[in-house]
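request received
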Amino acid sequence: MQGKIAVEEHFAIPATTGRSARYQSPYWSALQAKLLDIHDQRLVEMDRNGIATEIISLNSNGVQSILDVASAVDTARIANDALAEAIAKRPDRFAGFAALPMQDPQAAATELGRCVRDLKFKGALVNSFTQVGTDDTAVYYDLPQYRAFWAEVERLGVPFYLHPRDQLPSRRRAYDGHPWLIGSPWGFAEETAIHALRLMGSGLLDDYPKLQIVIGHLGERIPYDLWRLDHRLTKVPGRPAKKTMGEYFRRNFHITTSGHFCTQSLIHAILTVGADRVLFAVDYPFEDHAHGCSWFDAAEIAESDRIKIGRDNAKVLFSLG
Ligand code: ZN
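response:
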């Protein structure tokens, strides 16, 4: 399919590339150059694989693991300005998501407003929970101090992409002795799914019913468990939210194909939320453009769904021209 729009594609600035240097390996060294490039190799690969537009976002953990609040605010602004400058060179091929300093909810709301109004960004991408002050903190956005932030997201009318990040060592003891499970193979989805479920179950989406939240990796495993979740919640009291989790998931969430190139999972996602709420993404450079595109272009789904997922849904959701 030509003219695809890919919506979970990452870049870095030198400050955030260094933060991710925790992965000391040839794999990570090769990724760094790709994260810092927007107009060269990335564009060549987009052309080769039928991607018309990429919506670019800062790499994980990005701003969310900066402990000092003032430094988080500065880094978000520097990254967003750098991205806006890069997009301005090829506005026909790139759009942007704002990185946000969630350490300070008011500053995050202000930065999102600036990015949408002045930089013409299409929404925000945040790497799950935020650390504030000390290493061992994990602040989730269902907490009361974020209600005014969400009010601003709803008022601005832009989607919020909830992206994975590393779990904290103190919260991953079940992985002891099995470090290969911690990150993208398993832990990322576990962490992001819990965050998404907290948002759904907290009542946030009763207060702000127009919020639109995007999650990647074909739904971070939530579609597969959604029926059982609601089935068991009929017997487990205490959830503040008024509707079923399925109702929020189908009304307030969108799912992307980032890094999950499996047709069975794609079909399950379509059956769960409908083809209007599934969007194409690669997760470059952590995944290959060629792999994601060749899979999607040949996936055994209806052509009308391929057009929606590959392009049209993103045009509508992100107000792309
Ligand atoms: Zn990603």
